[in-house]
Amino acid sequence: MEKSTHKASLLLEGYNGKAVLLVHGITGTPTELRFIATQLNSAGYTVLCNMLPGHGSTMGELKKVAWEEIYVACEKDFIQLQKRYKQIFVGGLSIGALVAMHLAYKHPNKVSGIIGFGPTLFYDGWAQYKGRFLLEFIWHIPFLRKTIVVRESWPYGLKDETLRDKIDHYYKRITSGKLKDSAASFGTPYFPIACLYQGHLLSKLVKKELAAIITPVILFHSDNDDMASVKNSRYIYDRIGSTDKSLILLENSYHMITIDQDKERVARETVNFLDQI
User: Fold this and answer.
1) 3 state SS of 173
2) What per-residue confidence (pLDDT) applies to 166?
């Protein structure tokens, strides 16, 4: 398999002949999926999570990324995995989960299963900034969409107070002009409206595709998600064409369920799901 082109990308070789492609969220990094990846790898799975295009770099590069560019990069990874593994599963966090679903729609006979970690179709979590209702107005105006950047604030998608304090300490030292050196490992505390708009475009497409997706799927969502309420996963669960589907609700995390206080359960249930297919 081709080596990853980014030093922050993650590739763990397994031994059971099966592979999992994991897609991190917009403005995130593979670090947010590392715990899940290592647990899957310990169970025998090869796991690949590459840094998405435009990520781990500058704010200028991040603003220019289109969802199509992200999808093409993930599809390329998927095709590379196909050359070596008999079964391939796809999963992702937040918007990354939508990329995984779109992959399953495009490759219905080749994706063995879908894992959705806090899939995000719309931003309706309890901690979203007060101006969220202006989003649809703002992101349809190109100048505003390309210009406005929202700084992420407490609780950073984390219920784990120790980890949240570390993230808070890191984020307070970062400005949008000094991202490049640290963004590759830790992501960015800034959400360009341009990126949120790309997520919006992808979510509109995936909503239309759900009924045609028949791949087995497992969804994880926190009842206390601060970014995207559990209505997101319920929407998908109720409309996806899969007959083999499950929704696991979590009580001890916020949005970042792959690194928060339910991460052990998320990893365990993910392994169980994959092992049964």
Assistant:
1) coil
2) 87
Query: Cα 48–49–52 angle (5° rounding)?
Result: 140
Q: What is the DSSP letter of 65?
A: -
- 179 Cβ partners below 8 Å, 6+ apart? 57, 58, 59, 188, 190
The residues, any chain, with a CB within 8 Å of residue 64's CB and separated by 6 or more, are 54, 194
- Residue 69, classified by CB atoms within 10 Å of its CB into exposed (0-12), middle (13-18) or buried (19+), is middle
CATH number, domain with residue 127: 3.40.50.1820
pLDDT of residue 45: 98
In a domain, 138, yes or no: yes
Structural domain contains residue 139? yes
Tokens for 36?
């899940």
In a domain, 17, yes or no: yes
- Look up the domain containing 32 and give its range: 10-275
pLDDT at residue 121 greater than cutoff 80: yes
* Structural domains counted in the chain: 1
234: tokens are: 């319920």
Residue 182 has pLDDT above 60, yes or no: no
Residue 1 domain flag: no
pLDDT tens, residue by residue, 199-246: 999 999 999 999 999 999 999 999 999 999 999 999 999 999 999 999
Burial class (CB in 10 A: 0-12, 13-18, 19+), 26: buried
Residues in the chain: 277
- For the cut 60, the answer to whether the pLDDT of residue 183 exceeds it is no
